[in-house]
Amino acid sequence: MFRETRTVAQLKTQLVDVEAQISVLRAEQHVLVNELDRAQAPQTDASRSMVDWVQAHLDVKRDTARDLVFAARRFGHHRGIHGRMLNGDATFDRTIAAVKLADAGATEGDVEESYRRDLAGVARMLGHTKHVTSQDERQIFADRFFTIQPNLDESRYRMWGEAPGVVGRTIGKAICERADEFHRIAGDLPTSRGQRQLDALTAIAQDSLDGATSHESTSPQVTVFVDARQDNPTETTAEVEYGPRVGPDALERILCTGRVRVVGLDTNGVPVVTSPLGRAIPSAVRHTVARRDGVCVIDGCTSRYRLQPHHIIRYADGGTHHPDNLATICWFHHHIAIHQDGYRIDPDSPPLRRRLIRGSPRGPDPP
Ligand SMILES: [Zn+2]
Ligand SMILES: [Zn+2]
Q1: Which residue of 133, 231, 233, 366 lies most exposed, with the fewest beta carbons within 10 A?
Q2: Residues with CB under 5 A from ligand 2 (ion)
Q3: C-alpha span between 285 and 254 (Å, rounded)
Q4: What span, in angstroms and rounded, lies between the C-alpha atoms of 348 and 318?
Q5: Radius of gyration of the chain (CA)
Q6: What spacing in Å lies between the alpha carbon of 191 and ligand 2's midpoint?
Q7: From CA 367, how far away is CA 361, in angstroms rounded?
Q8: Which residues face 162 on adjacent strands?
Q9: Longest Cα pair distance anywhere in the chain, in angstroms?
């Protein structure tokens, strides 16, 4: 049994027909992706964005995922273009090109004209058409949003949004400038651009909460619950009252900066020991240390941004509030490098040229 031989013309017709069917299916995917986007699907798993989510779940290339999400978000604004694809009259790639052209402010006539050109020709048209109409501007403005949402136990937050160009540039510039500042401060500490940008956003938020002129972070008075049955209470997770669960690093940070009360719980969750509020560094000591150091004491750092005293020997390891055990360090070195990235101050380094070293304070010192 042999298939009847098909002519090139027949094969071509069939090939084009299959592509049209693919396009119809793609158009249906746009509707689904649009609904998933509105349902904030990326939050249901570890995806950072809708593009990540589509890429992971469809097992497609990133460019394909990006085009799918782009079209899904834009088809509502270009129903004619999308309808053409839904009818099998335009391919996926053609539709993306036409939507981009329409988004760039091309007239309906120009978009129509683009269907008579090859895709490279449409790309050239796009280059010549970059102007945004006031109607587009209003739509872009109306589409603006920012969302920040915690996961169930509030150990992680996810944030995303969309902004008009000018707003995006303002936000981007503020974050980039602050991130670059941290990049200079960070020196040899390995941080990624993404990490620095989040650190920058955190600092900007902290400025807003504390007042931009304040040099010292004010942290709220918090109650931390620890498991009192354990020999080493800092190794357990703690719960800040009415707040997110925190790990041992965050706990140590709170002990370092905050006005804090620590409550130890027994097996039944009954408080068996409560620390006095005086556990935070007394303000006379804070002032003495601040005047003595004047600037971040980490070698090479000249930052005066949110200078704070930090315990060289951790409080949990028996370190005291004596000025000799306190070093003034900037927000970046304090919150990012030490309390979150796990560096610590080398106690043997000179008082005004402190070195950061890796490793557990309880383990042996590196040679
Ligand atoms: Zn500290
Ligand atoms: Zn510093």
Answers
A1: 231
A2: 296, 298, 301, 303, 330, 333
A3: 17
A4: 17
A5: 29
A6: 15
A7: 14
A8: 145
A9: 97
151 C-alpha to center of ligand 1: Å? 27
Rounded to a whole number, what is the distance in angstroms from the first to the last CA of the chain?
79
Q: How far is the CA of 259 from the centre of ligand 2 (A)?
A: 23
* Ligand 2 centroid, distance to 304 Cα (angstroms): 8
As a whole number of angstroms, the distance between CA 86 and CA 139 comes to 24
Ligand nearest to the CA of residue 305, numbered in listed order = 2
- pLDDT per residue, tens digit, the chain (367 aa), is 556 788 899 999 999 889 888 888 988 898 899 999 888 888 887 778 899 999 999 999 998 999 999 988 888 888 888 888 888 888 888 999 999 888 887 888 889 999 999 999 998 888 777 666 677 777 888 888 999 998 888 888 999 999 887 788 889 989 999 998 888 888 778 888 899 999 999 999 888 887 644 444 444 455 666 666 655 544 444 555 545 555 666 666 666 666 666 677 776 767 766 665 544 677 788 888 988 998 999 998 888 888 888 888 886 677 788 889 999 999 889 888 888 788 889 999 998 899 999 866 544 433 3
Quick one: CA dihedral 299, 304, 305, 311, positive or negative? positive
- Please tell me the number of the ligand nearest to residue 256's CA: 1
How many contiguous H segments (helices) and E segments (strands) does the chain have? 13, 11
Number of C-beta neighbours around residue 84 at 10 A: 19
Ligand nearest to the CA of 339: 1
User: 147 near 159, Cβ under 8 Å?
Assistant: yes
- Tell me whether strands 157-162 and 308-311 are parallel, antiparallel or unpaired: unpaired
Identity of the residue numbered 263: V
- Distance of CA 339 from the midpoint of ligand 1 (Å): 6
DSSP string across 281-321: PPHHHHHHHHHHH-S--BTT----TT-EEEESS-GGGT--S
User: In the numeric block, which tokens belong to residue 185?
Assistant: 């401060």
- Compute the distance between CA of residue 329 and CA of residue 354 in angstroms, rounded to an integer: 10
Distance 250 CA to ligand 1 centre (A): 10
Q: Using the mean position of ligand 2's atoms as its centre, give its distance from the Cα of residue 294 in Å.
A: 12
